[in-house]
Each structure stands twice: as structure tokens, then as C-alpha cells.
């Protein structure tokens, strides 16, 4: 998955939904991984519920993602293969 810059709640919930779908998970399966009910996952993805930060971290972790903060306009590009080896 490519690094994404998210600047609002809608972008975040869309990114979480996209990742869940890319992994082939149902809302029920993601909920089980994150310790949430499927209805709760649905409300978060649909933007009808604003979750606590701890809930967002549970979802992020369950989806195998990391949350990275950076200064606006100064997000470092991913290293090239020559930078790695």
C-alpha cells in the first residue's frame, strides 16, 4: 500500500475501508481483529460515528497499517531501491 496523506476524517475512513476491502476482510472480520462489533465498524466507515482515538488505533493495527505524522508539505518520499541496498 502506498503512503497516503490524509487531512480529514472522511479521507481516513475511506482509506480504512479501502484497506479492509483490499485485504478481503468483511466488517465482521475486521471488527473481530480490532475488538469491535461489525455495526461499529460500519458506522465508522460510513462516517456516522466519530470513534475514539484508541478505536482508530485498534483499526489501524488490525489492518496492518502504521500511523505516521509529518510536517505538512515535508513528507519524505519512499526510499528508492538504491537507497536501501
UniProtKB/TrEMBL annotation:
Per UniProt, residues of the HTH cro/C1-type domain are 16-70
Name a Pfam family for this protein. HTH_3
Which Gene3D superfamilies does this one have? lambda repressor-like DNA-binding domains
Q: Which domain of life is it from?
A: Bacteria
Sorted alphabetically, which SUPFAM superfamilies does this protein's record hold? lambda repressor-like DNA-binding domains
Species this protein is from: Gemmobacter nanjingensis
Name of the protein described by the UniProt record: HTH cro/C1-type domain-containing protein
Amino acid at each position: 500500500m502506498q503512503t497516503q496523506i490524509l487531512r480529514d476524517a472522511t479521507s481516513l475512513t475511506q482509506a480504512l475501508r479501502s484497506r479492509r476491502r483490499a485485504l478481503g476482510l468483511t466488517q465482521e472480520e475486521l471488527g473481530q481483529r480490532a475488538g469491535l462489533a461489525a455495526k461499529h465498524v460500519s458506522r465508522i466507515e460510513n462516517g456516522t460515528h466519530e470513534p475514539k482515538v484508541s478505536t482508530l488505533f485498534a483499526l489501524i493495527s488490525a489492518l496492518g497499517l502504521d500511523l505516521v505524522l509529518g510536517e505538512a508539505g515535508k513528507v519524505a518520499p519512499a526510499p528508492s531501491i538504491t537507497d536501501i541496498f
